[in-house]
Amino acid sequence: MRDVPSAQLSDPYRVRQGDTLSGIASRCGRSTADLQRINAIKDVQRLRAGQTLYLSEASAFGVSVLFLDAL
Fold first, then answer.
1. Are 44 and 36 in contact (CB under 8 A)?
2. Going by fewer Cβ within 10 Å, which terminus of the chain is more open, N or C?
3. From residue 18, how far is each of 26, 55, 66 by CA, in Å?
């Protein structure tokens, strides 16, 4: 497991070889259960290198609204 400060984790996060969900959760200040729920992960043992994980609800479920003025 890498010892990377949470400030260096981007959201969304790309899983690297050797990462574990619990390690990622601890580095980003979330619980493993939170990351499981946000990313709909059924089996925490099946993370793959290169997989994208959302670290917050905002990045996973965020909606951006753009209003255009027709005039």
1. yes
2. C
3. 15, 18, 40
Are 16 and 53 in contact by the 8 Å Cβ rule? The answer is no
Task: Tell me: pLDDT of 8 over 60.
Answer: yes
Q: Using an 8 Å Cβ cutoff, are 63 and 35 in contact?
A: no
Q: What is the pTM of this model?
A: 0.73
C-alpha to C-alpha distance for 56 and 71, rounded to whole angstroms? 37
Residue 19: closest CA among 61, 71, 59, 55 = 55
- C-alpha 68/C-alpha 45 separation (Å) is 45
Give me the DSSP letters along 11-46.
Answer: SSEE--TT--HHHHHHHHT--HHHHHHHHT-S-GGG
* Cis previous bond, 12, omega within 30: yes
